[in-house]
């Protein structure tokens, strides 16, 4: 059992437990802080999976940009404490969650494992080894960013352009939605 | 003995469960959106693990697109929350029953 394996399992367990902690917080800002820790742990997991570009993007985009937007909005709303009526997990929720976890574990280990193996075998994958055709592309680990770029800007060029339009639409849309309707209010009054 | 990316798939499953519980059990819209971020992160972890298992780079590219869509979702969703708080003075899902059937 090597160090990578132990680090990966510890990070995964910590991310799962911390996200459980996060959804039971009363204050939004403390939940955001815990979520930043979860994002950073996931970045570490991506790094151990030799997806270096994904790890860097996770920290820069998620833990940086998206969480800044979240914290900014939480502080902009400036919710009074009586708005946050959360009283913790109730017993009914606890029972439902335990039942759900039980069913999910059974499904995941019995059905999911079989489906996963089946799907992978149809792609020419034997357990514990990588398909020969793919090795050259992935396992130049020091060239991960180069490989991602080569795939993104050749095979996924149209998807990339469409995503850029989506971001443009989201920027315009969020400004239109969130702006004060001063003209309408003046007409109504 | 499971390999690293196979464990990653199991962890993505667990993270997805936690995020789903957050979306279903919290009544605060802000927390529901933060839980959606956990759902998207679980999907990203599954993509990167699958990318490592199959040895192709495509999973990482799709993970980057998911990240971009998550940024859009956060921007529009938070703008909606601001507009909602301005009109209803509340961000509890229980108070937003104007469209109840």
Amount of helix of chain A: over 70%
Going by CATH, the homologous superfamily of the largest domain in chain A would be: NADH-ubiquinone/plastoquinone oxidoreductase chain 6, subunit NuoJ
Shape-level CATH architecture of the largest domain in chain A: Up-down Bundle
Category from helices, strands and their pairing of chain A: mainly alpha
Strand content of chain A: under 5%
**CA-CA gap between termini of chain A:** 72 Å
CATH topology of the largest domain in chain A: Four Helix Bundle (Hemerythrin (Met), subunit A)
- The total tally of domains of chain B equals 1
Count of DSSP E strands of chain B? 0
Shape, principal axes of CA atoms of chain A: globular
Mean pLDDT of chain B: 87
Account of the 3D structure:
- The complex is a heterodimer of chains A (189) and B (101).
- Chain A is mainly alpha-helical and 189 residues long.
- Chain A has three domains: 1-88, NADH-ubiquinone/plastoquinone oxidoreductase chain 6, subunit NuoJ (Four Helix Bundle (Hemerythrin (Met), subunit A)); 90-123; 132-189, no CATH class.
- Chain A is 76% helix and 0% strand.
- The radius of gyration of chain A is 22 Å and the shape is globular.
- The N and C termini of chain A lie far apart (72 Å).
- Chain B has helices at residues 4-25, 29-54, 58-88.
- Chain B has one domain (4-89): Helix Hairpins.
- The model of chain B has no long low-confidence stretch (mean pLDDT 87).
- Chain B is mostly helical.
- Chain B is elongated, with a radius of gyration of 17 Å.
- Chain B starts with a helix and ends in a 13-residue tail after the last helix.
- Chains A and B meet through α1, α2, α3, α4 and α5 of A and α1, α2 and α3 of B.
């Amino acid at each position: 059992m090597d160090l990578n394996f132990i680090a990966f399992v510890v990070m995964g367990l910590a991310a799962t437990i911390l996200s459980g902690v996060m959804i039971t917080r009363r204050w939004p800002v403390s939940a955001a802080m815990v979520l930043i820790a979860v994002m950073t742990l996931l970045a570490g997991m991506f790094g151990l999976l030799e997806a270096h570009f994904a790890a860097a993007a996770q920290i820069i985009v998620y833990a940086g940009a998206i969480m800044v937007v979240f914290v900014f909005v939480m502080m902009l709303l400036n919710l009074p404490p009586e708005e946050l009526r959360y009283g913790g997990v109730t017993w009914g929720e606890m029972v439902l969650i335990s039942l759900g976890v039980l069913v999910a574990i059974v499904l995941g280990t019995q059905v999911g494992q079989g489906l996963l193996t089946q799907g992978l075998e149809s792609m020419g994958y034997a357990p514990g080894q990588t398909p020969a055709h793919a090795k050259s592309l992935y396992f130049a680990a020091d060239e991960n960013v180069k490989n991602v770029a080569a795939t993104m800007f050749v095979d996924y060029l149209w998807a990339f352009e469409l995503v850029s339009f989506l971001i443009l639409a989201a920027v315009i849309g969020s400004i239109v939605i969130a702006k004060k309707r001063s003209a309408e209010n003046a007409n109504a009054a | 003995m499971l390999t690293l990316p196979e464990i990653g798939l199991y962890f993505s499953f667990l993270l997805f469960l936690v995020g789903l519980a957050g979306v279903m059990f919290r009544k605060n819209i802000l927390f529901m959106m933060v839980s959606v971020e956990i759902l998207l992160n679980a999907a990203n972890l599954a993509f990167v693990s699958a990318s490592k298992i199959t040895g192709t780079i495509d999973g990482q590219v799709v993970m980057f697109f998911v990240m971009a869509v998550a940024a859009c979702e956060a921007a529009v969703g938070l703008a909606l929350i601001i507009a909602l708080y301005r009109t209803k003075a509340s961000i509890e899902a229980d108070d937003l029953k104007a469209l109840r059937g």
